[in-house]
Amino acid sequence: MARRKKIYEGKAKILYEGTEPGTFVQYFKDDTSAGDGAKKAQIDGKGVLNNRLSEFFMTGLNQIGVPTHFIRRLNMREQLVRQVEIIPLEVVVRNVAAGSISKRLGIAEGTPLPRPIVEYYFKDDSLHDPMVSEEHVIAFGWASQQDLDDIIALALRVNDFLSGVMLGVGIRLVDFKIEIGRIWEGDFMRLVVADEISPDSCRLWDIETGQKLDKDVFRRDLGSLSDAYTEVARRLGVLPTNVTHSVKPTVIN
Fold first, then answer.
1. For residues 214 and 98, what is the distance between their CA atoms, to the nearest angstrom?
2. Cα–Cα distance between 116 and 114 in angstroms, integer?
3. What percent of the chain clears pLDDT 70, i.e. is strictly above it?
4. Closest by CA position to 197, among listed 30, 51, 26, 16
């Protein structure tokens, strides 16, 4: 097999040169991390689960008219995606107080928010992805006011879709993070949902018990991350047949 050209490697994924013009191959790793990489582990089967789950969510968004970079899944760990120019922001939508908003504002975790709140974080690991305002985004040229209006509209549509899908399988969508990319078609530019949507990028709680079914299981040592992600995939009907259950993570110091 010919050696593929690696374009980028992050904490949980690798991007390779695509098999078609204007595409990338997105490979999902088993690596997981928390605390800006202070805690790391390899969870057998995590990449397979996230590939299938992200395919499920991105396909659903495409079907309801929310544009994404997703084209198709290639195999158990890889998917073909459109090449996009990533806006250097993490866009976070919060429905329930948890994580950093609870710490910043002293709101008890689990408190429903009066409305979905959209936040922006500048993508820079060396700065620990600081929270920024619309003023920062526009002043530094990361996005225009029109871009931000479109980003908010996209983010809230994603929130409506994910909230409904999760509610249908007994899961509360607490919050989630997406990235937005620009696609150029001649002189015309449009914004699309990029990166991934998976339990790595969402907070998901069981509606009845409050059990966490997301990356907080790893962050807070609450049990098996593999079991949590497998449960989400099982409820959504996208569970791969060859994922190992109850895997003990290999922790990397």
1. 12
2. 7
3. 93
4. 51
Burial 228-250, CB ≥16 within 10 A → b, else e: bbbbbbebbeebeeebeeebebe
- The structural domains of the chain, with segments of one domain joined by +, span 6-84+224-252, 85-206
48, 240 contact by CB (below 8 A): yes
Look up the pTM and report it.
0.92
Side chain identity, residue 25: V
Q: Quick one: pLDDT band at residue 3, thresholds 50, 70, 90?
A: confident
Q: How far apart are CA 98 and CA 143, in angstroms?
A: 27
> Can you say whether residue 7 is alpha, beta or left, with left for phi > 0 and alpha for psi between -120 and 50 degrees?
alpha
Q: Which CATH class is domain 85-206?
A: alpha beta
* Rounded to 5°, angle at Cα 25 from 184 and 118: 60
CATH architecture of 6-84+224-252: 2-Layer Sandwich (3.30)
Between helices 46-63 and 145-167, what is the axis angle to 10°? Answer: 110
Q: What is the pLDDT of residue 37?
A: 67
pLDDT at 215 over 80: yes
The predicted structure's pLDDT at residue 70: 98
Q: Given the structure tokens 């060396």, which residue do they identify?
A: 126
pLDDT of residue 139: 98
Which segments of 7-122 does DSSP mark as H helices, in order?
A: 46-63, 100-105
d(CA 130, CA 75): 35
Place of tokens 């907080």: 216
